[in-house]
Amino acid sequence: MKPIIYDYNLDQLQDWMKENGEPAFRGGQLFDWLYVKRVKSFEDMSNLPKPLREKLEESFQFVTLSEITRFESKDGTVKFLFGLHDNHAIETVIMRHDYGNSICVTTQVGCRIGCTFCASTLGGLKRNLTAGEIVAQVVTAQQMLDATGERVSSIVIMGSGEPFENYDATMTFLRIMIHEKGLNIGQRHITVSTSGIVPSMYKFTEENTQINLAISIHAPNDKLRSKLMPVNRRFPFEDVMAACRNHIAKTGRRITFEYALIGGVNDQAEHAQELADVLQGMLCHVNLIPVNHVPERNYVRTPRNDIFEFQRILEKNKINCTIRREQGHDIAAACGQLRAKHMESTTR
After folding, report:
1. Where is S-adenosyl-L-methionine bound in this sequence (predicted)?
2. Residue 165 known to be catalytic
3. Which of 46, 56, 290, 296 is the 20 to 30 A CA-CA neighbour of 309?
4. Tell me: domain 5-59, CATH 3.40.30.10, correct?
């Protein structure tokens, strides 16, 4: 299979040009066609010599995603199911907010983390995505938004998979996204979410970026977190929290803790108080997520009043906290749901 053109950052494109007898500035022109003009073929790159366009066509694969289906919610959320070259499928979501358009990208086909409330883990991990396959999700979404004069203003790496188990591809993707000669997404408008892969958390801290870090925590202690998130047996709760404190100390940046509320499991007043005690004094924000119902799981949603009580207890303890606004509820927008349905139908 030919390499994916989106796998290459600007420096690598310039190096490729020099290796192929072209001046380095041609790499900059190519980068501009990919991310500023966002053309869909090498033939459209009119300021590149025709022999070079033909060489690029011979050397690289351009289109990496095929749209299997698209659902549009009443609230403006758009969810794509994209097919890959090897017949796997991934999901990408565009969310419309008052402050702009956010895109949620996927970093793996499936997931091996095994969170018991998440549809992404159904069927396990198939493979990592390349950096270019992650990039292509944003470019494809931006091409759709171009038709109405809109743009992707923020990115959340919160789709299927664990980005810190595909660390190098994730970081290449991020560097391409923030490049000032490309899509130029502001670093503070990007959030990468991890289930707590501790070695990669320390590595990410040393990258010294302004990109936001979010941790899927979902419990206030080791025992309950191990029940909900098997990854906690590899990277215990206290080790995750130590990595969080290190990140805050070294970067001065606030961490977001994502906490999925599951009816009768982790949503009681004592859980809220225990979480407040653990987070006391940390520069952090808690994002409470009323769990989406996944037919393959037995969990139920936390009653509305209990959600507000959980929030009240955290705020009483001076913990900054919000409740995530639901989007795309009518189009199975929870991570992995659309892919799970597709897998089931193709298996039948």
Report:
1. 161-162, 193, 216-218, 292
2. no
3. 296
4. no
